[in-house]
């Protein structure tokens, strides 16, 4: 009996230690100071934003911004969500447009309605729409990624190839590239990992995957427009007219570096990463408009593009808005973003005369091409579970490319997974 | 808990007994003090997370009311998450792939480990210490690094192995395509695990009395016969232990396929159960469903471990008899 009670005591003691160890995490948060300098925590992955933060910090001793990049784009939402739920979240974060619905339906974002008027007139209506949910503004747009056909100018010229303007021409060109000497050349790579690209291609063809009617979400991924796009790419893959390396896998990078893949569909931000990955190809690339289904009515989708958001837990909403408005929605800010090679979401930044990207120092047409693409952007209704759709597309397209499931299953399966997740 | 039963002495004299009790009591206090840090760690790193996960698995984040993007709300669903995990065909498909993987990997692991250990134990093996270290070294390489390294060797376009084979007109099978992906994963796992398991079996061999081997040799056994009739039965319990490790390792397989998945379309996000858990928790922000699936997996691990441990008791009893 005595022994048992001692054991109980020991266990209780252990639990007490464990619990106290557990609870000693939250205490440091409470220091709220209205006067004196505040430090804002800003999680952002975008390259060169730190340079803009330095400028701000030098000019604003009272509002210091501490920038850190806890994760690359894709893993960021989960890190932010976990941190906010644990009461340890940052004041501000960068969010891809595609990730905004995840944040909003997780309920972790501070709305920006109080400052709406200072923000909205700096951007196009479509851009404001992509950061507004249920009519409420939740983010300040930073950069846009209108899709461009980034291609190897030198290889196109050497082989007498012309940039395709329609998807039919694209297919003929892909056939032609396959007949080039060596037999190992491809016009483009199509990877199941690029779910956002596939969604963009479907959007271009007129798909509307999510719609909200009568207080309920409708999922319509298995529609005619998407089917048409899928059939087009299925044909290219099955006839071996495009390569199917995993994006950013070593074999893909090797294929691009050695000039075996001639082009890629990327956002206007592409020159930055391309320069990092293939420093030997400076001057060899050019940007062009993506192929169209109907050239009379050009439609362009975005690959990427991001906004900055303010998290629910912040004690410094006013200061955060002040900083983010300066960074993204002021003329000075837009000029600064242009300086660090961003294609700004702000209209002012898009109109600035600027030097070509470092990847293509002679290509004075690059930024005008990007602006032209941005003027044809289609507006998007993101579903609240866009991430679920993306993993499902990656899985099902992967199965189809791999040959473990028929192409006909891709859209019905994705449609069902996304629908069930919402139901 | 285990060895507290002191022999009972029938005695009428109470004084020595009281003394013995006091000594025993102070021993106990001392013992508890010593194991307290371990218990505390156990509670913090094991019990509390499990209790927390069980709690998580009972809730679900349901769509909130008021608009298309209304914040989700926590709702108690009891065993609902378990039911939906068990009703999900991708869960069973991932278990099935896990079973295929384990059924091939575990016997191969045991077999190769035994052979390596027996080879190490052969008399007249030179540089034994060196071989032992060389065999053990891959175990020290983190599985993520190992998968990356092997991944590079698997990609025909950049692999020196494929290029070498190609230059002499040999066509190697594409290991990152179709069902060959099992070969690719199992190879990485074996490469990392054989050394560890071989050393365990080798250590067991070291405890074999030299007289028994000498006796067998005097009886006319050659090395093969000694291995077959003396050494093998002796290391059976240790081999079962390595099998246990391998089975638990198989259930927890995650980093190797995850790393390889960036190289191939043959591995998708729900290929193995833990990858599915990761997808739920970190891509879909559905911690509740991830917690339910994890607990189901943990239960399966415990059950399998008990089964193998039972087998081990059985075999060691047999080996000793």
UniProtKB/TrEMBL annotation, chain A:
Residues 1-23 form the signal peptide. It comes from the Bacteria. Keywords: Cell membrane, Lipoprotein, Membrane, Palmitate, Signal, Sugar transport, Transport. It holds the Pfam family SBP_bac_1. InterPro entries: Bact_solute-bd_prot1, SBP. The keyword Lipoprotein applies. This is Multiple sugar transport system substrate-binding protein.
UniProtKB/TrEMBL annotation, chain B:
InterPro entries: ABC_transporter_permease, MetI-like, MetI-like_sf. Residues 95-308 form the ABC transmembrane type-1 domain. SUPFAM superfamilies: MetI-like (SSF161098). One of its GO terms (biological process) is transmembrane transport. The chain crosses the membrane at residues 29-52, 98-122, 134-155, 181-205, 235-254, 290-311. Keywords: Cell membrane, Membrane, Sugar transport, Transmembrane, Transmembrane helix, Transport. GO terms for cellular component: plasma membrane. PROSITE patterns: ABC_TM1 (PS50928). Belongs to the binding-protein-dependent transport system permease family. This is Multiple sugar transport system permease protein. It comes from Diaminobutyricimonas aerilata. The lineage of its organism: Bacteria, Bacillati, Actinomycetota, Actinomycetes, Micrococcales.
């Amino acid at each position: 009996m005595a022994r048992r009670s001692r054991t109980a005591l020991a266990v209780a003691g252990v639990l007490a230690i464990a619990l106290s160890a557990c609870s000693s995490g939250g205490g440091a948060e409470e220091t709220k100071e209205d006067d004196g300098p505040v430090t804002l925590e800003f999680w952002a992955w975008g390259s060169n934003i730190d340079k803009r933060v330095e400028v701000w910090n030098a000019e604003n001793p009272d509002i210091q911004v501490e920038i850190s990049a806890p994760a690359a784009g894709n893993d960021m939402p989960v890190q932010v969500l976990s941190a906010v739920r644990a009461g340890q979240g940052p004041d501000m974060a960068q969010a891809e447009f595609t990730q905004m619905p995840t944040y909003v339906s997780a309920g972790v974002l501070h709305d920006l309605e109080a400052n709406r008027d200072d923000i909205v007139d700096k951007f196009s209506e479509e851009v404001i729409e992509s950061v507004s949910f249920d009519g409420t503004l939740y983010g300040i747009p930073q950069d846009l990624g209108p899709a461009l056909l980034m291609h190897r100018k030198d290889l196109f010229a050497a082989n007498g190839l012309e940039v395709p303007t329609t998807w039919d021409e694209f297919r003929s060109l892909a056939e032609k590239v396959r007949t080039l000497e060596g037999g190992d050349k491809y016009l483009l790579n199509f990877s199941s990992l690029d779910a956002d690209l596939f969604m963009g291609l479907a959007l271009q063809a007129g798909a509307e995957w999510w719609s909200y009617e009568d207080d309920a979400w409708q999922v319509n991924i298995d529609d005619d427009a998407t089917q048409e796009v899928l059939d087009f790419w299925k044909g290219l893959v099955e006839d071996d007219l495009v390569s199917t390396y995993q994006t950013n896998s070593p074999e893909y990078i090797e294929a691009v570096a050695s000039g075996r893949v001639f082009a890629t569909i990327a956002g206007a931000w592409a020159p930055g990463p391309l320069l990092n990955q293939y420093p030997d190809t400076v001057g060899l690339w050019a940007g062009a408009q993506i192929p169209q289904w109907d050239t009379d009515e050009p439609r362009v989708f975005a690959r990427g593009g991001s906004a900055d958001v303010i998290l629910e837990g912040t004690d410094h909403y006013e200061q955060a808005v002040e900083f983010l408005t300066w960074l993204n929605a002021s003329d000075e800010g837009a000029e600064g973003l242009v300086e660090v090679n961003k294609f700004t979401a702000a209209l002012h930044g898009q109109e600035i005369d600027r030097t070509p990207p470092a990847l293509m120092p002679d290509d004075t047409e690059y930024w005008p091409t990007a602006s032209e693409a941005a003027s044809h952007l289609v507006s998007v209704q993101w579903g609240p579970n866009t991430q679920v759709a993306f993993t499902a597309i990656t899985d099902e397209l992967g199965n189809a490319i791999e040959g473990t499931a028929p192409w006909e299953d891709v859209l019905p399966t994705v449609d069902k997974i996304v629908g069930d997740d919402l139901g | 808990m285990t060895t507290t039963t002191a022999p009972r002495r029938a005695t009428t004299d109470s004084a020595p007994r009281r003394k013995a009790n006091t000594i025993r009591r102070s021993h106990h206090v001392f013992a508890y003090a010593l194991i307290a840090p371990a218990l505390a760690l156990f509670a913090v790193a094991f019990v509390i997370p499990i209790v927390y996960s069980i709690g998580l698995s009972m809730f679900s984040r349901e769509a909130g009311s008021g608009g298309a993007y209304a914040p989700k709300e926590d709702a108690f669903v009891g065993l609902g998450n378990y039911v939906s995990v068990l009703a999900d065909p991708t869960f069973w498909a991932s278990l099935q792939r896990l079973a295929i993987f384990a059924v091939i990997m575990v016997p191969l692991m045991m077999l190769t480990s035994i052979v390596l250990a027996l080879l190490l134990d052969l008399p007249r093996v030179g540089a034994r210490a060196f071989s032992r270290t060389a065999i053990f070294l891959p175990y020290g390489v983190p599985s993520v690094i190992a998968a990356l390294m092997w991944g590079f060797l698997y990609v025909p376009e950049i692999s020196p192995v494929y290029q070498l084979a190609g230059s002499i007109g040999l066509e190697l099978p594409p290991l990152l395509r179709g069902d060959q992906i099992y070969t690719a994963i199992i190879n990485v796992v074996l490469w990392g695990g054989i050394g560890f398991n071989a050393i365990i079996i080798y250590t067991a061999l070291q405890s074999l009395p030299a007289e028994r081997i000498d006796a067998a040799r005097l009886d006319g056994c050659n090395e093969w016969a000694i291995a077959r009739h003396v050494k093998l039965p002796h290391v059976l319990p240790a081999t079962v232990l390595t099998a246990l490790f391998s089975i638990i390792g198989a259930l927890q397989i995650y980093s190797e396929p995850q790393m390889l998945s960036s190289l191939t379309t043959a591995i998708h996000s729900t290929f193995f159960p833990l990858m599915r858990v990761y997808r739920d928790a970190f891509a879909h922000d559905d911690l509740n469903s991830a917690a339910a699936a994890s607990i189901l997996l943990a239960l399966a691990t415990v059950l399998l471990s008990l089964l193998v441990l039972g087998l081990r008791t059985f075999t060691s009893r047999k080996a000793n008899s």
